[in-house]
Amino acid sequence: MITTDEYLYFTGRALDGMAAVLEELGDDLANRRPELPGANTPYAIVTHCIGVVDHWAGRLVAGRAVERDRDAEFHASGKVADLVTRLGEAKQRLREYVAVADMRAPLHEEAAPPYGDTLIGRTQGAALQHVYEELAQHRGHLELTRDVLGG
Fold it and tell me: What are the pLDDT digits (tens) for 64-83?
């Protein structure tokens, strides 16, 4: 089984990679939406990832009170420096959430559809794996978005 340090190494690589892409893009490109159907800005993609960390790891795994407006994540905009700071804070919170996780225990509350009826919604360990899945997926998504924007 993967250790806490190993898990945090891989999630940290994803989060640090996102920060590097944001810094490379700068404020203008990070807040620009590619001219593709359904595309999101880099800023929104990263804001969504912070929401994923806090909802899945914070609320469902660690049992913390977390308010999330998922729809608003995709409309977020702002300064790259502020978002990079928020990424660092999310990385630290993830460490705290993972420290209290019981990998085989059920979630602190039921996962929303469609996840509740899948392996993702059964245990804290599976939910944390989902967090990594989302971070890795969206890091690649962010890198492709950067390339489309010409950053």
Answer: 999 999 999 999 999 999 99
